[in-house]
Input
Amino acid sequence: MDVRTKVSRSKAFEKELGRVPDFIRKKVIFWIFLVESNGLAEVTKSPGFHDEPLKGERRGQRSVRMNRAYRLIYHVIQDRVHIELLEVHKHAY
Output
């Protein structure tokens, strides 16, 4: 069974990715590589990224911690086989 996950990127995500610090951009690209090569199910098991579902208006979306300040927001389009990256930005506490 092929566990690979297709990753799409929204226009807003692409624009925001160009604005984040270089070390965050590299970590996002590494996360995308892991998801595409190992599958989302495997990557979500890694406690280092703190992949978690969002609540409220963002219900149905998920958050991945790139570091203490930055979050990557995505949603699953097709049961862990296709996801779309929506945003990468500084998280407001």
Remarks:
- The chain has a mean pLDDT of 90.
- DSSP finds three helices and five strands in the chain.
